[in-house]
Structures are given as structure tokens and as C-alpha cells.
Amino acid sequence: MEPPAPLAAAESYASPAATCDVVMRGGVTSGVVYPWAVCELARHHRLVRVGGTSAGAVAAAASAAAEHGRHGGASGRGGFPVLARLPGDLASARRGRSRLSTLFAPQRATAPLLRLLLAVLAAREAGSLAARARAALTGVGAAAVAPGGWWRLLLGAAPGLVLLVLAASGGASAATAVLVAVVGVLVLLAGTAAGAAAVHLRALRVAVPANLYGVCSGMPAGDAPDDDRVLAPWLTDLLDEAAGLPEGGGPLTFGHLWAGPGAEPLTGLEEAPDDAAVRLEVVTTSVTHGRPVRMPLGARRDGVPPLYVDPAELRRLLPERVVAWVEEHPPPLPEDPAERLECRARDALARPLVPLPASADLPVALAVRTSLSYPLLISAVPFHVLDLEEGAGALRRVAAAVDDVLSSATSSGSSGAPGAAPGEEDPLGAVLVRLPGEVLPTRRVWTTDGGVTSNFPVQVFDAFAPSRPTFGITLRPQRPGSPVGGPLDPGAPGPADDALAPVLHPLEPGADGAPAGVLRFAGAVLSTMQDWSDTVQLPLPGVRDRVAQVEVPAGDGGWDLRMPPEAIARLAGRGREAGVALRERFTTADASGWTGWEVHRWTRLRASLPLLEEAAGELVAALDPATAGPGEQDLREMLRLPPEEVPVHPWTGRSQRRRAQRALAGLLESSPAGVPPEDRLGAGAPQPPLALRYGPRDGV
Fold it and tell me: CA 557 to CA 616: how far, in whole Å?
């Protein structure tokens, strides 16, 4: 399958006239919808910020890498033509299977589960009795070749076999023999099914947790060398090629993307600089903390312990060159000598764990692999963190040992210092001598698919008044009766009927009038729990016009790990139509001469201004002296206090306090108090109205 000619030509991307951000939704194999969509956008736009979750994170990272290599990169082989070839590469056949299917390689102990899963999905799609029978036989066959499976099947089948032997022994009447034979067959089938179920349940209970909670780790099974047909090596090679890195010049890091093409990659930074060439953010889910997390993580806040990784665990999930890079690039040490030595001592006592590199040095493949850990299908990525509560005593002893060593060095006039040059005494050894047998307790932080908490974080790059569009590409099931064609057009902003939420789970009765089954209802409930926070954004003004909702026919994408080439081509083509629709909407002028981008910016401003008015009204109410209780100072009085007299979080100085007072006074002028309804900023504003929320900046 060759890419369309304009998308395969490097000159198509030579001179982008505008800039944009792009966010992509997760969906296992449905990610094949994104490459041609992004390529169409990239023909007119330079990608500045790109984000996604799960399969969307793979597409986002590949898109960011292609932007880095837009002009070929250092090797001359990178750029968007690499991205354009991706659907064809995934559809290409090798040994009778598409390359897409070979990416999901199970380990030996979990292979029976994957065979059973694929058979059940195929039977569910076919819906016939024969397909269900094939799925049952596949489950039994998979159980038979599982480690220790044959004897469990034999044990389950034994009672039925005994009855069949008795029926054939001739020691009873013909009628009795027939009855015993029939019962024997039924017991044989039931026992075999029970034995197969026991094998698969054991694999789910033992083998999957041992494989880091996944059927597929993303790496080749056993002791096989890195195989570019398997997920993690394939992903790492794809990113390096798209970025145009020279042979052996990878792995691609966030520092490469931030520095831009032709520049030395940035190192040691925890946050992207304001002038970063390309900013990539992917979303994962910390199951341990029960919340979404953006990667790269950014600057560490006070009181938050540093993250570590176990190289042995990472080698089960990522290629050796990525793990070796992580081991060789610890984060920068503090400048203060005591803090520097204390940090080195903690890292030494945490071995074999190694600290996670600074954001600039973090391999993109590691961040994407963390977002891609689809629950139970693809192994989770564990991190480790110091247990500050249980290890408080150990940390105090480390700090005391550091103080002792530095004090001794100072009193003796030793030239040794933390980070000493070659030939000088390194005090780390002296610190460790004072801590014999000391162990720093750590605990695992388990991460899984970013789509668990935010499958389509279209708001991740939003600004109050955007200076460039943030395009979104999402997927939704094809509606009953909807023709197979281009992407579902969300419509231009304005009409109230265009603000209705999309129907994702119709649960219509079947042809016989029977209601939808319990499993379909349960699936709709689970999907709603997962996606509601993303879905409610789709009808909003300033969102619905920039998000292409691609309708996916049943059987295409999703869990279909064996998706045939024609389905891959179909999805890739629909993605291209989505990219064309978004590009033309925002770059083409209407009959009045306004481009979609101009209309979008005005809509965003018109929808956002009522939020200022609403906030001003709430502040006026909060500043009312009547809100203070007896003996309490109200907020107006507290604003007039000197910086050193406020209860907590003091101003940095009197000039900061004056700026706060001026800003507040200007905002209070926007209060709707006394303003006629027709003059309030919400009158005639796009619908539905927005809400100004108090929430964490990094809450995705």
C-alpha cells in the first residue's frame, strides 16, 4: 500500500505557512487513522505542540519526530514521508501476517490468553454458532500447548473418558451403555472446558502479573534479540528514523525535539524552554496515585521524592540501547555541596535502581511506552519512588553522615568535595562507610494506559486566547445507517443544535425488537466512566470546529490485532480526509472573506469573556466585608496588610502586592452587578457556556 503521492514527497512539506498544535486519541490499533491526517495538516502547518494517549501517543511521538526531521534531519532520511509510509508498512505482509499483527508478540506463558482473546473477538464479530465453536476449540487448543496445560486438560477430561470406557466395555445392556456413553460425552466436554478454563485462569492469575500485568511486554519472547517486528524495538526505530537521526545517534530524546533540527540536543533541563521547537506531551495513568500524569514530568516540586527505574525491569519492556541511555544519563546534581553529596548518597543506596533522567534527556520511546500500556494487553511500566514515610529515619542518617563528612573535610582542610575532579578525594565513599547496611525503602509506582483517565485530552494545550489552532482527531463508532465516507463533520460554531453531545452508545434494540444485551450495556457504562470528561468537551464552542470525529466501521481498529491490509487502508484514508477537512476549514475563506481560523479565534474570545465577568462577580461577593465572621479580617483588609503580616503565602514584596491590588481592581470593573442582562458578556455568547474551574495545572 503506497501513500498518496503528495504525502510521500518531501517537497510537499518544505514551506509551511502557519503553525498548529495537534492532539490524538488512544485506541490500540485504531492509531493507523492518524499518519495521513497529520501529513495533510503538516503540508500547511508546522507542528509546535503535539500530544496524545495510548495509540495516540505513538502517533503524536511519530508526528513530533517527523516535524524534527521535516527537512530530512541529520541523516537526510527523516520527515513526514516516513510518517506517510507508516500505514503501508503496518499493512505489509510477512510470513502470512501483517506487520501490525506481529507488533503484539506475547510471552510463552501468556500466548494462550492472546490466542483465546483473538478467537473470542472474531467470534463476537461474526456472531455465528460456528464462529463460537471455533473460538471454543481455539481456547482448548491454546490451553493444551500452554506450560503445564496438557495434564490439566487430561485431568478435566478423565471422568468423561472413564465413563466412555465403561460404556464400551460391554458389561451392561445396550440401553445402559448408550446412556453412559451420552453422559460420558457430556462430562468429557464439560471437563475439557473446565480444564481449559483452569489453564487460562491460571495464566491470568499468575503469568500476566509476572509479565508486569500484560499479555505482551512489547519485547521479543525469551532470549531472542531485539526484533524490529515487535512493538518496542519497532517504535524506537520509527522515532529515530522519522526524526532523521543518524545511524547510532538515538534514541530520540525530548531534548532533541526542544532544540530543533540541526541543533545540539538540550540536556539537563526539567522543563521545555519557551522557544522549544517542538513540544511533545503524552498522558499516562498512575494507578498507584489514581490520576493521569503528563510526560515528561517537568520540574520536581518540593516534598515530591525523585523517581527511579529498575534497569532489569526496563529491559523487559524496551530495547537495550534505550535502557543503557537511561543508566548513563542521571539528572543533574544540585549546586549546593551538601545537597549534591546527599543526592549522590541516596542514589548509591538505592541501587540497583537508577534515577530517571531529566526531562530533556528522557527517551521519547520510554514516555510513549508508558502511555501505551493497554491494561492486561500490554505490560505496565513500573517506576520506583523513595518511601519518605518509612524511610524518614534512613534519610536523616544519610543527611547526618553527609554533614559529618563535610565537617571533617572542612576541619582537616581536605580538598575533596562532592563531584571532585580526578585525583581528588571523593567523599561519597566516606559517607557510605558511615552507613553500613543502610537500605533506602522504595515503593513501586505502577503506570498504565493514559486512556484510562483521559483518552482524548484535547484541552492539554488550550490557552485562554489561542495564537494558533489546536486540532484534535478522535474516533467514534459508526452510527447505524451512517454511510461510510469522510470524517463526521462537527459543523461550524454557532447553531444550538450543533452543540448536542455525540451519541456514542445508542444501545438500540435489535432487529427482533429485543433490548441490547447486558454486556453491551456494561460496556457502555465502562466506556462512559472512562471518557465522559473528554466527551463533554466535544460540543463546546471553540472545540467542536477544530476536532474531526472520524467514524470507524465495526470491525476496524480497536482490539483487531489481526486487522487486514484493506481495513488499514480504509482507516488511513479516512484519517487523510479528516486532515484535509481540518486544514481546509481553517485556511479557506468563506463568502464573507473570513477564514475558519479567524472565526475560531473570535468564537474562543466571545465564549471566554463571560468567564471573566463571572469571576469578577464571584470576587465582588467574596470581598464583601459581610463575609468575615466576628473578629475576623475580611479579604479587603488582608489585601492591605504588609507582606510580612499575612497568615500564609506572603507576597514576595510590596511591589507584588501593589500589582495584585491593581489587577484585582481592574477585574472588579468587569463585575456584572448592576449591568442590564442584554449588556452582560454572556448575552449572545456561543453555547453551551463554559465554566472557569479551580483545578491543578497538571491535571490533564
Answer: 47
